[in-house]
Structure formats: structure tokens, C-alpha cells
Amino acid sequence: MASLDRVKVLVLGDSGVGKSSLVHLLCQNQVLGNPSWTVGCSVDVRVHDYKEGTPEEKTYYIELWDVGGSVGSASSVKSTRAVFYNSVNGIILVHDLTNKKSSQNLYRWSLEALNRDLVPTGVLVTNGDYDREQFADNQIPLLVIGTKLDQIHEAKRHEVLTRTAFLAEDFNAEEINLDCTNPRYLAAGSSNAVKLSRFFDKVIEKRYFLREGNQIPGFPDRKRFGGGTLKSLHYD
Amino acid sequence: MSFLIDSSIMITSQILFFGFGWLFFMRQLFKDYEVRQYVVQVIFSVTFAFSCTMFELIIFEILKVLNSSSRYFHWKMNLCVILLILVFMVPFYIGYFIVSNIRLLHRQRLLFSCLLWLTFMYFFWKLGDPFPILSPKHGILSIEQLISRVGVIGVTLMALLSGFGAVNCPYTYMSYFLRNVTDADILALERRLLQTMDMIISKKKRMAMTRRTMFQKGEVHNKPSGFWGMIKSVTTSAPGSENLTLIQQEVDALEELSRQLFLETADLYATKERIEYSKTFKGKYFNFLGYFFSIYCVWKIFMATINIVFDRVGKTDPVTRGIEITVNYLGIQFDVKFWSQHISFILVGIIIVTSIRGLLITLTKFFYAISSSKSSNVIVLLLAQIMGMYFVSSVLLIRMSMPLEYRTIITEVLGELQFNFYHRWFDVIFLVSALSSILFLYLAHKQAPEKHMAP
């Protein structure tokens, strides 16, 4: 059973947006009772049926790596976090619908995860402006999830959802808006569940069925410390 | 007429300080959060503005700018406003925001915040009892009563911060204390971290698969809840759910380990960055400063001990004493009055600017370390309270650094406080804080190398 193939998906976002609750909901189909601070990185595993309902159905493990912290952390924390960004197959960007800053910070989060191996010292040189082209030729599938939907007043809902639609477009990604304390948003058959399933299928496809070999192009191993490469400890 | 001009100058400067506080709040403190309650930002900026105005009045006193009577009026008014903010407004809003965070009490927010404020006032009043700070001839609701208590809290804070700062500053500046960290150490630790994550993942995979097969077979994993549930679970328990709880315990232990490793790795990276920084020119300059500051720190601790042991409080300020020494021993003659004014202006100015800057930087660091999106409002208000009390007590203590003729305004406005007590109290707390910081840093320094160098 443990010999199923696996893919690695990062879950990024500001602290307090609800990443841990989201991951718990996705993996254990239960609401997280006592959310607390995530220090470092917490991982959970979801069993996913690729191409469910078709003859090519196959089961995969999806590892959800929930990386804690904020974009404004000290560079030593950022360098430590960078060790989790190795050989990533998909990224879920989480933001809080009630907090505009968390949505804006998603650009910096994605740059941190995607650009880190262009800079050997692990310190970000980009000034934080995102470039559409960077996301256009980005090979890693992205998904944008907005949380705390229940706390948005009915009257403001339309305005907030328009804003998040623009955000998702910038990342060239699908978006899902939900409330992590209510499992019905991800109930089987709902449009959210379909989007989620499609995203995971896309991640698996890019990882295992891309004809350019198993390495994702443009994402070589990290070169650090003047030439030595960090040997990946995962079996690929 | 001149009073109007003076007042307009004061008000303009107050608006400037308010603007500065507003910008600082937006750009530095709250740059990762969204300001939803503008009340918090206003209160913070107002506290900052009135605190800075007090310092401005001291400077005006030395430079003899503005009319003397209008200065006195503005002092009194400023003091009243600051006390009003520190004792009434900020504690009330702190109580209000704390109560707003608790869901149960949401309905009667105002009632509970008033209750909290009354409790605060009670303890605040009781604070005055054990200290010999007042002469009994003052009424119950006079400025002196409030100032004396605010002064005690503020002076304690100042002494704690100064004691810790005096010890920590050379410790961080000097590269002598830096542990030797090599790239190999960091790589080894990262490898351990990733291995731990792999172990957690393989266990979670087993759990997820077990849950899936259980779900498909129609069993449901229920944690035993309630008395009857526990009795039932003793006799009949699905083997799957037993396995799950066992694996979950192992996973919990591994997750704790991964957190530790993460924090240690971050620590190593920070040390490595400091080592690289110390090789640059700026780093070498700070290293040299560190040696200088360590001598200064030792001297300050020594002076504090002497002051306490011999029970003496300096009567003359450093400026007059310095001038006396130069005139009497070195025989240099110069216009005492003229120079004493300018030198005390520069000295007091430097003290004020460095203490404001130091406090703002410390507050910012503190805020980043402990705030979250829920508690940011409460923490900012607490910081505003600390800032206000800190600045009020700086005014109390700065009196000692000024020549006699400039001290009169502070003595007049603040009333007959026992200033000597505050200096003695500062020395005591400074000594305690400095010595315990030395102990704390020594223990932390000793304990660290063993953790990292072990394979």
C-alpha cells in the first residue's frame, strides 16, 4: 500500500489565514478542532484517485506541505523554509477573504517558492513586483483558495469575489472560496470539489505524464554553498 | 498676542508628531496586517504626539524659546492630556478589544470593558501604597497622585530595558561570542530535518490508507467520547482505529522533533549570517563599538552598586560637573553660562533622540515576535501604553541631567515628587535587570554549542 506514487504540493499563505484547518479538512474530511500556530512545516497526506471513474483510474498519495510563517520573516527563517521547497509539484496559495493584505502577500509567497533557486544565497533579490511572464511560463500548477467566506457580509460578497477572481487570473490559476470550518463546501459533487479534483489531476499529470522526462523543466536542483548540491532525499 | 503665536507653534509641532506617529504605525508596525479599527491607529499616534511634545518643551526650556508663561501653560495642559490618555483611554480600549476577541462576551462588550477598566484602576491605585512617593498633603485626585504611579511603572520599565540593553548590546556586537558554524553543520541539520519529515509522511500515508479502507468497509473511526463510549471501546474496538491512535502518537512525537530541528536550523542560519556580517567593514566597526560598550556597561553597573551601597544621589548634573572640572583642574576659562546652555541642550537632545529611537525599534521587534492577526490591536495598544509611560518617566529622570536653572520647570509642573526615590528605584531595577541578563545570556550561550555539534 505504501508503494503508491506520490506528488508534493505546497500550501502557502500568511499566518492566521487557515492553512492548517484547510489541510486538515482536505486530508481527514474533518474540521480541525483546535488550530494552533504552525512552527516550521507540518505535512499531511491525502489519498487521491487520478481520473476517477475512468478505466485509467489510479490512486496516488498527495503530500500537502503546510509551511508556516510570514513573508516578512528574517532571512534566516526564509533560508530554513527554502529547504521545504525542493522538487515541488504543485502549489496551493491560501488567503483570507477578510484581509486584503494576505491576498497581496500571495505574490511574494509565490515568488519565494518559485524563484528561490535562481539566487544561490537564499536571499530574495526581487523587489516584490510580480511579472506576468514569470507566471505564464511557470510549469507548476497553482490553485488559489480564499478562506473565511462565512465572515463576509452578504452585501460585500460580490465585491470581494470580483477581487479574488482578478487575483486568480494573475496567477493563471483556478480559485476556490470556502469556510474551513464547514465541510459542506467540499462535499462530493460540488463545483469546489470538482475544481480541487481537477487541480490534483493536473499536478499528477505534470509530474508523471510529462514527456520531457521526470524533471520539471526550468527547475534544476539547488546549487548552494559554492557548488555543492543538496542531494534530494526523496526517492524519485 | 505672543501666547497665540506660541500656541500655534506648539499645535503645528504636535500635528507634525502626530503625522510621524501615523506613518510609523502604517509603514513599520502594521505593514503585514490590515488596519480595520482606525481608533487604534489614532490612539497610538496621539500618544506618540503628546509624548514627543513633552520632550520638545524641555528643549524649548533649555533654549529659552517661547514665552515662559506660555511654556508653563502648555506643560500643564500636555501633562493633563497625557495622563488622561494613559490612565483612562488606553486601558479602556485595551479592555474593549480583549473582550471583543472572546466570543462569549461579545454581546455585553461595553459592560465587560468597563469592569476590566475598573479592575485596572484598582490595581493602579494600590500600586502607590508600598512606595514612599508622596507627601500626604496632596489631595486624592491631583496630578501628583497619577504621575507618581505612572512614574513608578515607567521607571521600572526603563530600568529593565536599559539593564537588558546594556548587557545585550556588547553581546550582539562583539564577534567574540559568535559560535563557529560551518556549512557542513547546516547541511547535516537540514538532512535530519528532511529525514524526520519523510518519516512523518510515511506514517501519515499508512494512516490515510487505513482510514480509507475503514471508510470503504463502512467502519467509522470514533474517538471514545463520554463515559459510555469509553466502556464500549474497552470491549469492542476495531483493529483499524487502535492502529490509528498508536501511529498518531508516534507522529506527534516526530512532529515535535521536526519543530525543534526547524528552529535550530533557523538559529544556525542566523549565526552564519552574523559571522559573514562581522567580516565586513560595518561589522568590524560594530565589533569595536561592542568592546567600548562593554566597558561602559561594566562602569554603569559599578556606579549603580555604589549609589545603592553608599546611598548617594548625584546632586549635580554631568554638564555642570564637567564644566567645573575643566575650569578648576584644567584651568581653562570660558563663559560658563553660555556653554552650559548649549552643552546641556546637545546632551539632553542626544539622550531624547536615542531613547525614542531605541524604544521604537524595540517595540517593533517585540510586535513582530508576538503578534498575530487576532491580537494585533490589543498588542499595539499595550505598546502605546508602554511608550507613554516610558516617555513620562524619561522626563522625570532627565531632570537629573540638566543644570539647576532648567530643572525648575519640571519641578514646578510635576509638583513635589520625591525625585530621589525614582533615581534610587531606577538604580536597583537596573542592577537586577543587568545581572539577570548576564546570567540568562551566559546560560543560553553555554547550552547552545552542545545541541548543534552533536551528530
TrEMBL record, chain A:
Pfam assignment, any one: Roc
Keyword GTP-binding found: yes
> What SMART domains does the entry give?
RAB
The alphabetical list of record keywords is: GTP-binding, Nucleotide-binding
Highest taxon above the source species = Eukaryota
List the Gene Ontology MF annotations in alphabetical order.
GTP binding
| CDD domains associated with the record | RabL3 (cd04102)
**InterPro entries attached to this UniProt entry:** P-loop_NTPase (IPR027417)
Query: What function does this protein fulfil?
Result: Required for KRAS signaling regulation and modulation of cell proliferation. Regulator of KRAS prenylation, and probably prenylation of other small GTPases. Required for lymphocyte development and function. Not required for myeloid cell development.
Q: Self-association or partners: how does it assemble?
A: Homodimer. Interacts with GPR89; the interaction stabilizes GPR89. Interacts with RAP1GDS1.
User: What family is this protein classified in?
Assistant: Belongs to the small GTPase superfamily. Rab family.
What is the name of the protein in this document?
Answer: Rab-like protein 3
Organism whose genome encodes this protein: Lynx pardinus (Iberian lynx)
From TrEMBL, chain B:
Keywords of the record, alphabetical order, are: Membrane, Transmembrane, Transmembrane helix
Show where the Abscisic acid G-protein coupled receptor-like domain sits.
277-446
> Which InterPro entries does the record cross-reference, listed alphabetically?
ABA_GPCR_dom, Golgi_pH-regulator_cons_dom, GPHR/GTG
Q: Name one GO biological process term.
A: skin development
Segments traversing the membrane: 6-26, 38-63, 75-98, 110-127, 147-169, 288-310, 343-368, 380-402, 422-443
Its Gene Ontology molecular function terms?
A: voltage-gated monoatomic anion channel activity
Q: Name one Pfam family in it.
A: GPHR_N
Primary site of residence:
membrane
Query: What does it catalyze?
Result: bromide(in) = bromide(out); fluoride(in) = fluoride(out); iodide(out) = iodide(in)
Provide one Gene Ontology cellular component: Golgi cisterna membrane
Which topology term describes how it sits in the membrane?
Multi-pass membrane protein
Stretches assigned to the Golgi pH regulator conserved domain: 142-207
UniProt subcellular location:
Membrane
Q: Which family does it belong to?
A: Belongs to the Golgi pH regulator (TC 1.A.38) family.
PANTHER family per record: G-PROTEIN COUPLED RECEPTOR 89-RELATED, GOLGI PH REGULATOR A-RELATED
What name does UniProt use for this protein? Answer: Golgi pH regulator
Phylogenetic lineage: Eukaryota, Metazoa, Chordata, Craniata, Vertebrata
